[in-house]
Design a protein that fits this description.
Structural class: alpha/beta
CATH topology: Metallo-beta-lactamase, Chain A
CATH architecture: 4-Layer Sandwich
Distance between the termini: 35 Å
CATH class: Alpha Beta
Strand order of the largest sheet: 1-2-3-4-5-6
Largest sheet: 6 strands, mixed
Number of helices: 5
Number of domains: 1
Organism: Dyadobacter pollutisoli
Number of strands: 14
Keywords: Hydrolase, Metal-binding, Zinc
Protein name: MBL fold metallo-hydrolase
Radius of gyration: 16 Å
CATH superfamily: Ribonuclease Z/Hydroxyacylglutathione hydrolase-like
Order of helices and strands: EEEHEHEHEEEEEEEHEEH
Cofactor: Zn(2+)
Pfam family, one: Lactamase_B
Strand content: 25-35%
């Protein structure tokens, strides 16, 4: 059974997710830890729970979701996965990081590209990769059908959606991604977003103001 631990990091209040199962293997999703205290919070949790991180996977590569990747790659000697279309988004971070108060950005190397329709595995667990562009050109989400959850990044939020005014964003594309890739999932699937609290597919289909 998958255990989902949420950490809220950096000034953007970004949700970093640590997923683990009964084997003790774990994956880190969208590590936004920036300062030493945030990094220590995550790594201490991993150590105290005797977990073994095996991969870092990202929904997309905006600054608030990538700040901790390089340090975690080095500490655990594990690969980093990103969709190919978001590679330019990652490479752009160093050009604007200082504008948001991040004096240093350690750009990680991408070890493998995520591809829609394939799966990411760890331990006894499999996460299906779905392509949900609109907030970012290479944005993906990770779906677990067995436990009915989605790690959704900045696509669908509680009563909101991801912003589309950043480079590579497109409002119509985002709405289409949500309708065709997320709202086609069963209503009881829980969505763990990149910011704010979790929600469900059914609740957002009924109440989200962008889809009334």
């Amino acid at each position: 059974m998958v255990q989902i631990q949420t950490f809220v990091f950096n000034p953007f209040s970004e949700n970093t997710y640590l997923l683990s199962d009964e084997t003790g293997e774990a994956i880190i999703i969208d590590p936004g830890c920036y300062d030493q205290s945030e990094y220590k919070t995550l790594t201490d949790y991993i150590a105290s729970n005797n977990l073994t991180p095996v991969k870092i996977i990202n929904t997309h590569a905006h600054i608030d979701h990538v700040l901790g990747i390089a340090a975690l790659k080095r500490k655990y000697n594990i690969p980093f996965y990103l969709h190919r279309l978001d590679e330019p988004v990652l490479k752009a971070v160093k050009s604007y990081a200082s504008n948001y108060g991040f004096a240093v950005f350690d750009e990680p190397e991408i070890d493998q590209y995520l591809k829609e329709g394939e799966s990411v595995t760890f331990g006894n667990t499999s996460l299906k990769i779905i392509f949900v562009p609109g907030h970012a050109p290479g944005h993906v989400a990770f779906v677990n059908d067995e436990q009915k959850f989605v790690i959704g990044g900045d696509v669908l939020f509680h009563l909101s959606i991801g912003r589309t005014d950043l480079p590579g964003g497109d409002h119509a594309t985002l709405l289409s991604s949500i309708r065709t890739q997320l709202f086609t999932l069963p209503d009881d699937y829980q969505v763990f977003p990149g910011h704010m609290q979790s929600t469900t597919i059914g609740f957002e289909k009924k109440h989200n103001p962008f889809f009334r």
